[in-house]
Amino acid sequence: MTLLPKPFVFVRHGETPLNRDRLIGGRTDVPLSARGEDQAQHASALLAQRRWSLVAVSPQQRARRTAELALPGAAMTIVPDLRERDWGDLECRPLSEQTPYEVTPPNGEAWLPFCTRVTDALNALLADYDTPLVIAHSGVFRVIRLLATGTPHGERVGNVAPLWILPGASPDDWKIIPLEKMNAF
Prior knowledge:
Blueprint (H helix, E strand, L loop, with lengths): L7 E5 L4 H4 L13 H14 L7 E3 L3 H10 L6 E2 L32 H18 L4 E4 L1 H12 L13 E5 L6 E5 L7
Parallel strand pairs: 1-4, 2-3, 2-4
Antiparallel strand pairs: 1-5, 5-6
């Protein structure tokens, strides 16, 4: 699996009650917390500075609401395959019980099909649009990190912390840089 070598920006949705309480929330469709709504509104000034060729959003309410608050009035395209991974029996359980990403959770979505689903969705967007904005989930970012660096492991991406995903000279030479540090793009 590889990503088409085009830049895009990724934003994880705002905080939810499950994030706040350190619980697994994949397919569970939860709203933003009050803090999550504030995070999304705060990102508005930064995200509104650019014209996005597309605002692609997961169908889950936490991502849709983040997009609505961060880019009021902007047209959004709901992309079903950007939804979070289904953690099966681990949904709403403590993060400490989460299996490694590569292990299929009981009655949940296997890692490889999840990666394929997300990669195919991102490549479809990148084939048709220059510099899309993608608003989705930490699991989606894990797939991006895998494709960009060779591993899904690392710090959890912050809520509403926009990141440039930038291709380099070779298929495995990607850069992930906070949006506010990229003035020239």
